[in-house]
Amino acid sequence: MYVKASGTPVFDANGEFRGYRGTGSDVTERKRADEALRESAEALRRSEAYLAESQRLTHTGSWAWDPRTEEVLYCSEEMFRIFGLDPRKSPPGRENFRRQIHPEDRDRVRQKFEQCLRERVDSVEEYRVLLADGTVRHIASSGHPVVDENGELIAFIGTAVDVTERKRAQEERERLRQLEADLAHVNRVSMMGELAASLAHEITQPIASARNNARAALNFLDQRPPNLGEVREALDCVVGDSDRAGDIIDRIRDHIKKAPPRKGRFDLNAAINEVIVLARSVITENGVSVQTGLADGLFPVQGDRVQVQQVVLNLVLNAVEAMGSVEAGARELSISTEQNRTDGVLVEVPDSGPGIDPEHLERIFEAFYTAKSSGTGMGLSICRSIIDAHGGRLWAEANEPRGAVFQFTLPSAGSPAPESDK
After folding, report:
1. Model pTM?
2. Predicted local distance difference test score (pLDDT) of residue 349
C-alpha cells in the first residue's frame, strides 16, 4: 500500500510544541497508475525505436496525410532519408517530397495519386526520386484511404520502400539473360557455319531432284499427245522437292536469326528428328551410324524449340567430332527419349568415342573450358544454361563399354502431344 501523509505542527498558547496534526490518504491506485503510465511510455518508446530500426533495415518509410487540409500528419525519419531530405531542416510538407520525384515520373505519379483520391482506392506506384547529388533511387509506394463513419475521406496513409538494390539486381539479371541469349545466338551461328558444307548438300539434293523432275515434265508435255498423267506426277515431285529444300532453309533461318526466346508447347521427338536431318551429312561423312529410340506417346515439353534443338545439335556434333578421333571400332551414336515420372522427359545421347576423364565430367560445363585444340569452350556451358533456364538438368556420365553419354531432362507440359503437334 502507498500512503500520502501531510501534517502541520501544533503549538499551545505559550508557544510550546505539542505535536502534529495531519491527514493520510491511500494513494496506491494513483501510484500504480503512474507506474503503468511510465511503463506504457517506455514500451511506446521501445516500439518507436524498434519501428524506426525496422524501417531503416528494410528501407521503408511511412507517412500520413490529411487531404482536407493538405497537412502531413506523420512522416517517419526513414521517409526523409529515402527522399534525401533532412528532417531537421525540411518541414514535412507534401510539396517537399513531390519535388524530389524524378521529373520524368512526376506528372504520372501526381495523376495516379489524384485518381486514387477521387475514387478512394488504394494507390500502388513505382517511380524514381532524384537526390541533390544526382543519385537516382527507385521507390515502390503504396497508400490507403481512411474514411470516417460518415464515409468522408479524413486521411491517406502509406509507405514508400527504397527498392533501388532490387531494381539494380533485376537489371543485372536481365543484362545477364541478354548476354546468355547473345552467346547462344553466336553459338548457333557458329554451328551453322560448321554445317555449311553438309547443309549445302542437303539443299542441293532436292533442288537437283526438282530440276530433273521439271525437265521430265517438259518432255512429257512435248509428247503427242502430251502425257498429262506423267506431267502431274513429275510436278508433284517438284513440289515435294521444293518443300524439302524450303524446310531445311527455314530451319537454318530459325537457328541463325537473332530473336528473343519464344516458349511454347512442342513435340520433343519431332524437334530431335529435325536436328538429325540438319546434321545428317556431317554424321554420314564421319562414318557414324545413328540409332534413335524416341518414346511413343511422349508428353510435350514447354520451352523454346530452337534453343532445345541447339542443345541437341551441340551434343550430336560434339559426339561426332569425338568419335572422329577413334580409329578402331564402330562409331555409334544413339539418341533416345523417355517419359520420367519425377523429372518429366529424359533425353540421352550416348556415343562410342574416347570418353571423358572422370575428373573432368563437371568441368566440361564450365565456361571457356575445352579439351579440344579448337573451339571456345562455350558450347556445353551455353547448353547447360539453356536447360537450366527451362527448369531441367544437363549432365554427363561414362558410357559402357566406352564413350560418353550426355543426358538432360525437361519438365513435361501435360498430356501426350496430339498428332497436330508432331
Report:
1. 0.54
2. 94
